[in-house]
């Protein structure tokens, strides 16, 4: 697989990563299978998807434990990205950016992942009670201690970070400017897909201008852009899509023209090309510093997603994709 670099340190990763969250968190619990997830991780590494993206809150903790079983055997094949800063309670999630906690959390992640170092340590969310510079400074000390190679920041959510009249990523850009004064940012993770292209306006250019890598979260739109979800099919109660405005039966039906256009383009590229691969190829085409991180827990989809790195979209394709219907429904 094509290799891409993250940050000024030129950390090399496969062009398409693997989002590990669905194996342990946020999606249908009844469909989680530990052995199946392990096969998906091994397959991703086999085909060059070296960036494994997780977080201590996924599970919580169980996702890192699962990856640790693979890393114990294949650490040299993997680029490990995990996150810190969010604590999961019974019915709530809270931020914790206290320096002492960050250092303890890193040590705990290292134990679960069965590794001596984390390639990319990301701040999941800033703690409103702690200056972000203090949190970032503690993370920088982990780099100096050899426990972490590079630092990344996850974008503030649309609900939590948007002011009236402000751009979607203004809050994230403010955080980036602050932490950059403390220690270099190597990567930013934010949603980017053909139905959520907002990062193209300001966040992606900010990263490109500074040599900062961009990890494209949810590049397949929570699975919608694969064309495998049926409008009105329903979701299990703990599935994040059960509460997402774009996943009501009405909105899924309204957004079908997006999938239809992706499917038509896929057919033009070959019988075996899928809408998901076209969607991922679009993300890859947004810059050499962009690495999509599609989430899956199945070996089949890990293989399919990785193959998108070999799908070259033409200028005409990109023009056509820029004219896709605007998605209806949002988080807000």
Q: What do these coordinates show?
A:
By secondary structure, the chain is of the alpha/beta class. 37% of the residues lie in helices and 16% in strands. It is built from twelve helices and twelve strands. The strands form three sheets. An eight-stranded parallel sheet has the order 3-4-5-8-9-10-11-12. A two-stranded antiparallel ribbon has the order 1-2. Strands 6-7 form a two-stranded antiparallel ribbon. The longest helix is centred in the first third of the chain and has 15 residues, at 99-113. The chain is globular and about 50 Å long. The model is unreliable at 159-165 (pLDDT under 50).
Features:
332 residues; alpha/beta; two-stranded antiparallel ribbon
How many strands appear in the DSSP assignment? Answer: 12
**Order of the strands making up the biggest sheet:** 3-4-5-8-9-10-11-12
Radius of gyration: 19 Å
Strand content: 15-25%
Largest sheet: 8 strands, parallel
Low-pLDDT ranges: 159-165
User: What integer is the average pLDDT?
Assistant: 93
Helix content: 25-40%
Structural class: alpha/beta
Could you give the distance between the termini?
37 Å
Given the structure, what is the number of helices?
A: 12
H/E series: EEEHEHEEEHEHEHHEHEHHHEHH
Shape: globular
Offer a concise description of the structure.
37% of the residues lie in helices and 16% in strands.
